[in-house]
Automatic annotation (TrEMBL):
Protein name: Efflux ABC transporter (ATP-binding protein)
Lineage of source species: Bacteria, Bacillati, Bacillota, Bacilli, Bacillales
Annotated Gene3D superfamilies: ABC transporter type 1, transmembrane domain (1.20.1560.10), P-loop containing nucleotide triphosphate hydrolases (3.40.50.300)
SUPFAM superfamilies cross-referenced by the UniProt entry: ABC transporter transmembrane region, P-loop containing nucleoside triphosphate hydrolases
Pfam families hit by this protein: ABC_membrane, ABC_tran
Native species: Exiguobacterium oxidotolerans
PANTHER family, A to Z: ATP-BINDING CASSETTE SUB-FAMILY B MEMBER 10, MITOCHONDRIAL (PTHR43394:SF1), ATP-DEPENDENT PERMEASE MDL1, MITOCHONDRIAL (PTHR43394)
Source taxon at top rank: Bacteria
Residues in ABC transporter domain copies: 335-570
UniProt GO MF annotations: ABC-type oligopeptide transporter activity; ATP binding; ATP hydrolysis activity
Ion transport found in the keyword field: no
Amino acid sequence: MRLFRQLSWFLKEHKTSYLIAVVLLIITGFIDLTPPWLIGKVIDGLRSGSMDRTTLIQYVVGLLVISVASFILTYLWLAKLFGTAFLLERTLRSRFFTHLLKLTPTFYQKNRTGDLMALATNDLKAVERTAGFGVLTLVDSLNMTAITLVVMGVAIDWKLTLAALLPMPLLAYAMNKLGSQIHGRFIVAQDAFGTMNDQVVESISGLRVIRSFVQEEIDVKKFDDTTTDVFEKNMHVAKIDVLFEPIIKLLVGISYLIGLSFGTYLVFTNDITLGQLVAFNIYLGMLIWPMYAFGELINVIQRGTASLDRLEATMRVKPLIASTPKVEVVRPEVITLTNLTFTYPETNHPSLHGIDLTIKHGQTIGIVGPTGSGKTTLLRQFLREYPIGRDMLKVNGTPYEDVALETVRGWTGYVSQEHLLFSKSVRDNILFGAGEATEAELQEAIRLAAFTTDIETLDQGLQTMVGERGVTLSGGQKQRLSIARAMLKKPELLLLDDSLSAVDAKTESQIIDAIRTNRHQSTTLIVAHRLSAVAHADEILVLQDGVISERGTHEQLMERRGWYAEQFERQSEET
């Protein structure tokens, strides 16, 4: 019962609900044992002729009252037990999702989306089933079995009861063997389900690419192979799962045969009455559910344990970045990078090496360089997504590590290369970062992002639904909507990671002019491949192989006739 120990925190927190459910379940078990005894008394009374009409009516009314009481109590304990189990599922799902939000990019590089979806759906459902149906089968199988056996042994005949229980050790042995096998097979099946989920996510998100390369049939074949693998692994589980009920029925059938044969002999020897034999067989029939429940208990617990083990393995993963605030920083007046060197986890070659930079409040810094030179990596250091050496990055003289993560990300507005939009309206997507804003502030952010004209062309304006990941918008519209979202936040530190690549030169000029005019009192870092986007910057850094190869203003870099001047002239000629 390792799973119940793992869930002890929840069981203790909701012990009152479980206690009420268990008590009502036990009371219901006692009540359900009364009808067979009454039926046996009625049969013996009719057989001996001592049963009159009044007594018979009393027995019938008693059976009706017992049935109604059993119905009410069963409803109450079912609602209490399974309602608490659903609460466990909600609690675990909330904890799991909250934990995922805290984890750093390294975790998502190692774990597939499909596996995480499987954990948040199938595995959590298996744990919930254990907390509900598992507790039911545990209590009911033990309670009903114990009570029924005591009544059979005391009220009828102990010799007959022992004889009918001869097949039970075989049942316990079979359940133990089947349970140990289903645990491992269920983990393998859940892993396969995660793989299938991941492939579905990739195929749907990459549907345009699949169609453009005419790979539909190949992708369907690949998906068929994956679903076949999932099917085979689940069939592997089912081959063990389906053995539970037949084995239980076989052994209970043997118990019936022993009980009926030996019971008939006892009736002929006048050790028990015919009514007692009938009552005994009804009680034996009532043991079918506890026996079946015991088998289901092993099955459910093994599945739940396997799922909880998978969940806890993810929950034990610690984020590489922890928020350990020591100093309160209201606004980033000066940000200093000193010999900043950074290497991505699980790689050996540093992506950044020896970066020295001082950024004063209100400055605009341009970051350019060849593809793969470390521009995005440098920008992401300001978001604290990865750990770096202490004192390499400071704000107002305080190491970034000593400032709360919420504070750092609270004063930062980030527009990434991949513009993630939500399946909501244009208005909701822009308001996402700021939460609430006045209509005037919303319109100002749209103007700064040069998105006003596009809003007017949309069918429903700001209420237009953008579709999943902004599928109804063009690349340039996605970029400007993302910029508007960041501008509405009015961040102290704005990070634009090649966020103007999909707009034309005129629109780019409008956005840059808006940034220069409206953010002269805030800090802006712009990563760009089109150098005209950073020509106005107070300082421009040229990164090559993770090292600053050139730095200065636009005019200074043009005079040096290096990489920057060469690229700027080439782009100017192309324009």
